[in-house]
């Protein structure tokens, strides 16, 4: 078992850590309360509070790096939130390398996306509401990662769920958006039940929900309890992070504005599940079964997402399934235990950069293309949108893992660790992870070919609202964040992994990164990078041959083989959900309503009439109120006597 | 102090009722009485000493005079933390309810002042119910508070008000009579044991531990049925949707928000401490009813077509949580249930009022007549969202704290029931968000929003509709904002800072657990 760090009190800049989430929360509050009065300047307040929060985070980070490694875990207790009997829930923060890493990711990428949104949402009448909700999200996400106990985590967890619900449903007048928002919230709640039950189990068995105490005493948990807790936490993670079997809401969430897809549904919120498992590493370290289930879920999801991504024509849906798949990699990594926690977080960060960049690129394209998301309407856009295209292509190279771009370092490390898992796991985990890398290259190359190259198909069609297309580059408020994220996509992988920089920084939170002995894995480390690269190149080539070099029909071909049809229909995952839960649930609901209106009421009305003799008394009760009341009192005394007799005799 | 709190609203009711000729003056008088009551309640709140309660003083602010010496019954008042927070909840809700009812459209021949007088009368009797420390006195208030509520529903309600009022009355009366049997039973038993019969809660509680389990079970059942009808547990619940649907909104808030809580309050104050053995023996039965209530009523709420029936069904589900916490026997669960009573009063109050505002505008109580309201009334839609989020116990709202305490406090003793109840949070998300989607989101539609010209199911472009002035649907006005703001502030404030309320509740739930003869299953040694 790894050593748990000493916990000190937060002093210096760190004692101001509450500002991190209070600033954006205040921003949201002001924007909500002032309403239309803040329409003109509201978006700047939104940007300002998040940037200020980033600065505070950066100062705390710098201060922390100046401390010796064993003093980098600090706590700040603000007040007692809930206290009854032996239960004490602190409104407390834990500042350690893991939470600070997330703080920088959330506020850093959050700032960029807020700035981007000032351009993207400039013509939207709901701009102020958008920034209020985006600020709310940042505040809740910071509470999620900063809390020093499981209930604070839950507060942030459902808080980001609310923000996500509001932002997916931002275009409220669109029924599809409202439905997607509700679906996201409800599927997340399924996961939340898991998280809640895990908390209840920890409380029952350890009498505490504080991280430090739970982790210190994790060894006292019996194996069945421990395994159940880890599975329940995983259920929570599956809901929030769009992992199998709760992945179906995430692609639908693309109904939200594109900056939301970038920030919430790619870079930050959906990675909360990875955070949760990494945070609870002292629990997962104790149970191989728990870790194995995590890794299996990761493998299933990363494969599923990559397969479905291959057949989508909606650019945001392709990226969404790509996110599902990439988070699958991260979940697989943290499921490998001490050999993978830091790798999962590394991939989470690089993915945060390049996927946010890709989504902002997609938003820029939509901005130029009358909000059309159908890639069959695109083609040859490279010429018209140079900055968008170049930044997008850098993100593309990072995602498919071409050296020396970010994804190469972070994803290959996970695949290597997966092959090292030993036994059948090594082959299964490593094999599917490699296969999915090839699929990733296929769907991304297909996307790039259909969007930036080939025939300019948009010349011959109009968008859904009947307008012609006039592609153009986006304003600098949008391109600058894209450029910055592209720089991250290029450099982050090398910088973070060089000399184990990130892994070493995370040691106080996650323990030492344990690498397998050479020669014990399924495949030698000298072979794996070449194998993965080979698969990637093969996938990209296939996409180039089948999509890039052939003309793309503007309409989706309907005469296709059954595998293509299955993949287009999300491998029937939605249909299965519908048949298993929605339809029976609705039927049950109708049945209950009918029962309640007639059945239960009928029986009770019946007995009521029996008791009171006839409905005539009903009428008399209305008129001769007092007299009947007195009469009933008399009836009551009969009951009393009866009851007394029973008592006497028993 | 308590006597003033009890009498002031009753006097107010009489004064307001006598002023029917001058509506404006009557309304202002009613409001003034409610505000003075609120201020005096605040005084009582600060006069209540948490330290004394922790030291073991069961009741404070006590007052007792002989009433009917022959029966050994006394006019005895006093509060513990649980009763105090309920009185405070009532005092907060009444001015809001009066403010809402200011321009209420009533059936022909009824005046707003009459409605207000009855609301004040209900308040006074509620104070009596919560503050009584004599079992017979409690019974009298328990029955007496039916009367103003019966008239509120039967005279001021919707089209089927007569039916709903009688149904409400019969159910409550039946429960009350069964309880009366137990009350008298208690007197007889105490007479046998002590030589001199008593109704004093304190003396009866002392006696309780010595009673054999079978006697306890019979007496317990009398109280239990009455309370299970009042805070309806499935299957005693069908009167509530009718009453809630037909009652005027202000009365509905008091009915679901406070009056029904007398049932759950009764569980905590009477069933558990007076019949500890019976409570534990019969707990599984209650827990089954509670969990059925959470899941079944939640699912029925999903399918409701009428807005005013929707709120009662969500409340029945919430009462399931409260009952679960009470019969799970831990301080966390007890405190959670007590706080739940307060929080549910606030959040359901808000939900009921917002729905009332919607109905005032649309003239229909049917869900299907509304759609896309956010387009024409964003503030109303936003307030509705706050209300439903509090209803699904989102963290950051007051309801989360109480629901979380109930569940975490129930889990150690009752893991299976708690897990089933936790599944209820998914059902809650479904019923509130689906309702929100149907009424507030999507394109403008429905006859209530678009007027008769819209026709059922017609979808109209919102911009065009607004330009042509085809919808007269307006957003919240100043008085309405003033009525809603305190509730929203309380929802958020108590979501993050429940401490002051929990401090008052905690010593009393600790006493209750001791009276049941149990200790906390987890974390007792602190």
Give the topology, please:
The complex is a heterodimer of chains A (650) and B (526).
Chain A: E1 8-9, H1 18-34, H2 42-65, E2 74-84, E3 87-95, H3 97-120, H4 127-146, H5 150-168, H6 175-206, H7 211-216, H8 223-241, H9 249-252, H10 258-267, H11 272-279, H12 281-284, H13 288-309, H14 315-335, H15 341-368, H16 386-400, H17 406-419, H18 423-452, H19 476-497, H20 501-505, H21 507-510, H22 528-548, H23 562-568, H24 573-612, H25 615-623, H26 625-649
Parallel strand pairs in A: 1-2
Antiparallel strand pairs in A: 2-3
Helix pairs in contact in A: 1-2, 1-4, 2-3, 2-4, 3-4, 3-10, 3-15, 3-19, 4-5, 5-6, 6-8, 8-11, 8-13, 10-15, 11-14, 13-14, 13-18, 14-15, 14-17, 14-18, 15-16, 15-17, 15-19, 16-18, 16-19, 17-18, 17-19, 18-22, 25-26
Chain B: H1 2-17, H2 23-47, H3 50-55, E1 60-68, E2 73-79, H4 81-101, H5 112-131, H6 135-144, H7 146-156, H8 161-194, H9 201-208, H10 213-230, H11 239-246, H12 249-259, H13 261-274, H14 276-302, H15 307-326, H16 331-362, H17 373-376, H18 378-391, H19 398-410, H20 415-440, H21 447-450, H22 462-467, H23 478-496, H24 499-516
Antiparallel strand pairs in B: 1-2
Helix pairs in contact in B: 1-2, 1-5, 2-4, 2-5, 4-5, 4-12, 4-16, 4-23, 4-24, 5-6, 5-7, 6-8, 7-8, 8-10, 8-11, 10-13, 10-14, 11-12, 11-15, 12-16, 13-14, 13-15, 13-16, 13-24, 14-15, 14-20, 15-16, 15-19, 15-20, 16-18, 16-19, 16-23, 16-24, 18-20, 19-23
Transmembrane segments (chain B): 28-47, 82-100, 112-130, 136-156, 168-189, 217-236, 248-270, 282-303, 310-329, 341-364, 376-396, 416-436, 481-499
Membrane topology (chain B): Multi-pass membrane protein
Keywords (chain B): Membrane, Transmembrane, Transmembrane helix
């Amino acid at each position: 078992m790894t050593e748990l760090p000493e916990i000190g009190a937060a002093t210096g800049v760190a004692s101001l850590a509450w500002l991190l989430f209070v600033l954006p929360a205040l921003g949201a509050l002001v924007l909500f309360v002032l309403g239309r009065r803040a329409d003109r300047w509201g978006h700047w307040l939104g940007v300002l509070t998040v940037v200020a929060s980033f600065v505070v985070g950066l100062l705390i980070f710098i201060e922390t790096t100046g401390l010796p490694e064993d003093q980098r875990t600090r706590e700040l207790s603000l007040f007692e939130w809930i206290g009854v009997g032996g239960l004490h829930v602190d409104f407390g923060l834990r500042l350690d390398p893991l939470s600070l890493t997330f703080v920088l990711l959330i506020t850093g990428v959050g700032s960029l996306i807020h700035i981007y949104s000032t351009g993207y949402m400039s013509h939207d009448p709901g701009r102020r509401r958008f920034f209020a909700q985006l600020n709310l999200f940042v505040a809740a996400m910071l509470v999620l990662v900063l809390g020093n106990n499981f209930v604070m985590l839950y507060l942030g967890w459902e808080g980001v769920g609310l923000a996500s619900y509001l932002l997916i449903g931002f275009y409220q007048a669109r029924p599809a958006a409202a439905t997607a928002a509700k679906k996201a919230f409800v599927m997340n709640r399924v996961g939340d039940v898991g998280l809640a039950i895990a908390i209840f189990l920890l409380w029952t068995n350890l009498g505490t929900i504080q991280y430090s105490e739970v982790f210190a005493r994790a060894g006292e948990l019996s194996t069945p309890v421990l395994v159940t807790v880890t599975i329940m936490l995983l259920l929570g993670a599956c809901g929030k992070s769009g992992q199998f079997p709760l992945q179906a809401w995430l692609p639908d969430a693309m109904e939200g504005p594109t900056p939301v897809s970038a920030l919430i549904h790619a870079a930050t919120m959906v990675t909360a599940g990875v955070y949760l498992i990494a945070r609870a590493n002292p629990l997962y370290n104790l149970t191989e079964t728990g870790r194995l289930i995590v890794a299996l879920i990761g493998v299933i999801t990363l494969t599923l997402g990559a397969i479905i991504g291959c057949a989508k024509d909606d650019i945001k849906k392709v990226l969404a399934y790509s996110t599902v798949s990439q988070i699958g990699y991260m979940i697989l990594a943290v499921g490998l235990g001490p050999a993978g926690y830091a790798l999962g977080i590394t991939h989470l960060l690089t993915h945060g950069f390049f996927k946010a960049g890709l989504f902002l690129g997609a938003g820029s394209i939509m901005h130029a293309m009358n909000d059309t998301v159908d890639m069959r309407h695109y083609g040859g856009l490279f010429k018209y949108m140079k900055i968008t295209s170049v930044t997008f292509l850098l993100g593309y190279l990072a995602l498919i893992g071409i050296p020396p771009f970010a994804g190469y370092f972070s994803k290959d490390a996970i695949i290597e660790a997966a092959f090292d898992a030993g036994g059948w796991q090594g082959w299964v985990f490593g094999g599917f992870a490699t296969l999915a890398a090839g699929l990733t290259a296929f769907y991304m190359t297909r996307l790039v070919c259909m969007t930036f190259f080939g025939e300019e198909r948009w010349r011959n069609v109009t968008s859904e609202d009947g307008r012609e297309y006039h592609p153009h580059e986006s304003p600098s408020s949008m391109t600058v964040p894209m450029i910055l994220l592209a720089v991250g996509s290029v450099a982050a992988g090398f910088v973070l992994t060089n000399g184990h920089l990130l892994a070493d920084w995370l040691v106080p939170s996650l323990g030492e990164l344990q690498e397998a002995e050479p020669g014990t894995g399924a495949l030698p480390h000298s072979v794996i990078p070449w194998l993965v690269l080979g698969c990637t190149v093969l996938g990209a080539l296939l996409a180039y041959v089948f999509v890039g070099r052939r003309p793309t029909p503007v309409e989706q071909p309907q005469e296709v083989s059954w595998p293509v049809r299955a993949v287009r229909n999300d491998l029937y995952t939605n249909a299965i959900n519908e048949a298993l839960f929605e339809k029976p649930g609705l039927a049950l609901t109708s049945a209950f309503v009918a029962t309640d209106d007639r059945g239960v009421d009928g029986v009770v009305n019946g007995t009521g009439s029996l008791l009171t003799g006839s409905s005539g008394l009903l009428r008399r009760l209305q008129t001769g109120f007092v007299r009947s009341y007195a009469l009933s009192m008399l009836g009551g005394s009969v009951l009393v006597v009866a009851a007394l007799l029973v008592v006497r005799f028993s | 102090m308590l006597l003033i709190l009890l009498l002031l609203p009753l006097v107010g009711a009489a004064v307001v009722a006598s002023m029917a000729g001058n509506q404006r003056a009557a309304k202002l008088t009613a409001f003034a009485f409610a505000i003075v009551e609120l201020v005096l309640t605040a005084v009582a709140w600060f006069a209540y000493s948490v330290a004394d309660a922790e030291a073991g003083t069961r009741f404070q602010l006590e007052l007792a005079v002989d009433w009917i010496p022959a029966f050994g019954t006394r006019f005895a008042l006093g509060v513990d933390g649980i009763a105090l927070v309920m009185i405070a909840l009532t005092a907060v809700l009444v001015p809001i309810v009066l403010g809402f009812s200011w321009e209420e459209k009533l059936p022909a021949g009824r005046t707003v002042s009459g409605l207000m007088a009855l609301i004040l009368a209900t308040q006074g009797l509620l104070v009596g119910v919560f503050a009584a420390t004599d079992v017979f006195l409690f019974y009298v208030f328990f029955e007496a508070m039916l009367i103003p509520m019966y008239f509120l529903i039967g005279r001021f309600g919707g089209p089927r008000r007569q039916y709903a009022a009688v149904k409400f009355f019969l159910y409550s009366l039946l429960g009350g009579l069964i309880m009366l049997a137990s009350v008298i039973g208690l007197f007889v038993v105490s007479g046998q044991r002590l030589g001199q019969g008593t109704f004093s809660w304190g003396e009866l509680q002392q006696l309780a531990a010595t009673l054999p389990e079978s006697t306890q079970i019979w007496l317990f059942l009398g109280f239990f049925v009455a309370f299970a009808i009042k805070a309806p547990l499935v299957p005693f619940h069908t009167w509530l949707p009718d009453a809630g649907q037909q009652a005027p909104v202000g009365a509905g808030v008091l009915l679901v928000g406070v009056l029904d809580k007398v049932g759950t309050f009764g569980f905590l104050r009477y069933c558990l401490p007076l019949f500890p053995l019976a409570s534990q023996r019969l707990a599984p039965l209650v827990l089954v009813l509670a969990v059925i209530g959470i899941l079944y009523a939640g699912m029925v709420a999903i399918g409701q077509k009428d807005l005013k029936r929707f709120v009662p069904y969500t409340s029945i589900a919430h009462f399931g949580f409260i009952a679960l916490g009470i019969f799970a026997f831990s301080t966390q669960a007890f405190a959670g249930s007590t706080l739940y009573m307060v929080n549910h009063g606030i959040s359901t109050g808000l939900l009921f009022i917002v729905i009332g505002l919607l109905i005032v505008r649309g003239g229909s109580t049917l869900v299907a007549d509304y759609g896309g309201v956010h387009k024409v009334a964003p503030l109303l839609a936003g307030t509705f969202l706050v209300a439903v989020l509090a209803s699904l116990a989102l963290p950051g709202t007051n309801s989360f704290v109480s629901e979380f305490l109930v569940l975490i406090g129930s889990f150690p003793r009752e893991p299976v029931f708690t897990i089933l109840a936790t599944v209820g949070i998914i059902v809650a998300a479904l019923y509130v968000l689906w309702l929100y989607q149907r009424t507030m989101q999507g394109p403008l539609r429905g006859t209530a929003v678009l007027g008769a010209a819209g026709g059922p199911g017609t979808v109209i472009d919102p911009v065009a509709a607004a330009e042509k002035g085809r919808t007269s649907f307006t957003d919240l006005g100043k008085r309405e904002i003033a009525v809603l703001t305190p509730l929203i502030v309380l929802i958020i404030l108590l979501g993050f800072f429940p401490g002051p309320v929990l401090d008052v509740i905690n010593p009393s739930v600790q006493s209750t657990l001791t009276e049941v003869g149990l200790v906390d299953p987890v974390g007792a040694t602190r």
